């Protein structure tokens, strides 16, 4: 998808415009440092291309931009829970319409801020008052911050993830390090396992690494680059790739889509919503991922 060729619906500045992909409005950033796209549906980063590089973010060629379905690829915002601990899976934030609150720019890049507030549809799913901001900083690197505040009169618990799909040349040649040695294997019913310092995949993976280093490195010999993922405010890092059999079962992913991405996620993992992070009234929490090459 080439966002740069789409006509602008709204011009916000020389560097920031609103375009439309099917039924989804996208904040398009074209800056000397990088180009990027952020869908208002889901507050979803769908592209980040540093100057002179291929996109660091992978999007499915068959992603559905109908303004209803969650987008396949990019950086889905999984909140106020992560996984299938409640319905819908991964929470409602990735299916909600976010509001563009602010954009700022200088010679170093562009900052786009989106907001999400309770609505009839969110309150029907999750009976709590909240304020969510998504800060997307686009420059030499991409920094995404999910900032959530409890605006209710009682504490609530949550989990979440910034579910980044990284664009790679060939998943079987990629080597990942920094994720730590201990992980919960979702493919073995949550069994706690020990792994090595370097991971090279030959099959599907769905793991919650419970002791990740601050920085995870993805070495990609095919695209001749090293992607660095630095996370904050997390308690784990999720690594996921569905492999051929998984991709074939997804209507919004091409059968060979799994070959060119690896998910490395900044996550607040919890086995249930009740076991998640607790926020008292007025408290906030920031979940952050920074991606660079």
Topology:
Blueprint: E1 10-11, E2 16-21, E3 24-30, E4 34-39, E5 44-50, E6 77-78, E7 99-106, E8 109-116, H1 120-125, E9 130-138, E10 142-150, E11 156-158, E12 160-162, E13 165-167, E14 175-177, E15 182-185, E16 191-194, E17 198-199, E18 205-209, E19 215-220, E20 225-232, E21 236-241, H2 243-248, E22 261-268, E23 277-279, E24 284-292
Antiparallel strand pairs: 1-2, 2-3, 3-4, 4-5, 6-12, 7-8, 8-9, 9-10, 10-24, 11-23, 12-22, 13-22, 14-17, 14-19, 15-16, 15-18, 18-21, 19-20, 20-24, 21-22
Structural write-up:
The protein is mainly beta and 293 residues long. It contains two helices and 24 strands. It has helices spanning 120-125, 243-248; strands at residues 10-11, 16-21, 24-30, 34-39, 44-50, 77-78, 99-106, 109-116, 130-138, 142-150, 156-158, 160-162, 165-167, 175-177, 182-185, 191-194, 198-199, 205-209, 215-220, 225-232, 236-241, 261-268, 277-279, 284-292. A nine-stranded antiparallel beta sheet has the order 7-8-9-10-24-20-19-14-17, with no helix packed on it. Strands 6, 12, 13, 15, 16, 18, 21 and 22 form an eight-stranded antiparallel beta sheet that branches. A hairpin with a 4-residue loop joins strand 4 and strand 5. The longest helix is centred in the middle third of the chain and has 6 residues, at 120-125. The protein starts with 9 loop residues before the first strand and ends with a strand. The mean pLDDT is 97.
